[in-house]
Amino acid sequence: MAQPLRPDLITYSKAVEVETLDANTGTYRANISDAYLIVSVPNGGYVAATILQAASLFMAPKSQPHTLTAHWEFLTRSTVGSVIITLQIIKPGRQLTTLHATLYQNDLLPSAPWVTSTSRKCITAYLTMTSLPLAGLSLTTFALSNPPPPAPDFSLLPSDTDPNWTNHPFLSTHLNRVASLQNLHFYAPRPSAPHQPRTIPDMWIRLSTPNSPFTTVHLPYVIDSLPFSVEALRPAAGQDGPFGHDELFWYPTVVMNLEVKRPLEESHKVEWLFLRMKTREIMNGRFDLEVVVMDKEGALVAVGTQVGLVLGMERNLKGRGKM
Questions:
Q1: H or E segment at 187?
Q2: Which SUPFAM superfamilies does the entry link to (predicted)?
């Protein structure tokens, strides 16, 4: 059965709200919510999404409110609480504008200059901003190399009665440990359904909060929700495997990239997204991850890639330091 809705769950739009401090200098403030913690550390994709939100506000007067591409470097872990985001135009353009962004925490000021010499740079980023609906040549060249199981009857997923898709087994066991994952419902192919190799998971997802459609600012969180290609190799209790069935890992993101093909606007009411994840190799505690995001109609929404680490969960609980 689907997980019950937490009474304290806040909407994602509330969690990524950004306050304009100085539009002329591209300075914004956000508050990182504890509803998106991975044990003790906020989900990196969620924190990165506040930068997208600030960039959209910053570029709206220039009629380039949409992120085309984003590249984030996660310099150190963030914490729950206030952050300052600064944006700088690196290359202006009539069609594309490149921004440099920095997200700061610790020793923040209540007024300009907002940050101090001892404030921590948690994330730096480069973003390409544009207006995605601009007319241009469009050609359909993408198709999944192997089709997933038949699309579910979405009305049956909450009751876990669809013949091909079911609640993800990892989440059924560990959901209460990870607050960030409680904001999404994940549905994986049933063992009896035809599907990809275990290291190439397919997933249908929706938001836990009712009547909250996906928007573009959700995408960093979506592609960084969890590297299921690692979890797909988790052995069952009593079985041999590459690690213990009850061994818990933390997956801090080192770098992450996003390319948006189609903007997700709240007015379009996109309730469901399909994810296909692929990891080429997990080596010495490092992994690559590619996430393809599609809508119910099979249209390509976005492509995300990242490099991450596989660390013991005790590293998550030690406090700030080197990853």
A1: strand 184-189
A2: Thioesterase/thiol ester dehydrase-isomerase
